[in-house]
Specification:
256 residues; alpha+beta; 3-stranded antiparallel sheet; 35% strand; elongated
Length: 256
Amino acid sequence: MSSITVPVPGPRIRLLTVGALSALLVVACAIPALGPRATLAVDPGQAPEHTISVSGIGRVTIAPDVADLRLGVQITKPTVGEARDAAAVAMANVVAALRAAGIAEKDIQTSILSLQPVYDYNTDGSAPKLTGYQLTNTVAVTIRDLDRVSDAIDGAMTAGATTMDGVTFRVDDPGAAEDQARTAAMADAKEKAQSLASAAGVTITGVASISEGYSPTPTPIPYAGALKTEAADVATPVQPGVTEIQVNVSVAYLID
């Protein structure tokens, strides 16, 4: 009787055979995926919004109706007591003059009250020498009748004011002017958007978003209602100018 012996592969060969078969199976499964298929750039259920983004500016010029003034006294005396007494008398006279000019009590507010030592710094290298004390008392004044600005300034200086930081003008209630500037800003933005849409061959269908910025800008432009002074050679001339209310908007318009 004859026999045939078939060799049995070792463990390593068996592992290689299983690995090769597995690789063939993976390739076979992947063949359909390698074929052509559609690629979706966006989700069909969420169409992208097409917009035109523009900015608009609205400006309204308005005459101010309120003036803000800071003035006071600065007194230097050898002792603290002397500086305090002299400054107290001077400031009392200044406040009285402001009241006489028609400024209400609620519109006069102390803004600075300070006491500083004064030294003599010699150039010979010796130590500084204390020579006295300087007391500063400043009030912030709101003047609601612009015809009284010159009277308030001149009266205060005549009464003993020695410092004046300046005067600024503003609109007490800018709400109406802001509304006008806002309307003008939106009209400016819409005009720009329509021009762009027409050039691009599209149609504006709505508004996606609006943001706003606001800035009051005082400008030194005199107007017809400037302060009247009967004695221009004596009274301090003051020109309120005008205040420019500016509103900026950024608008994104939907287009089709």
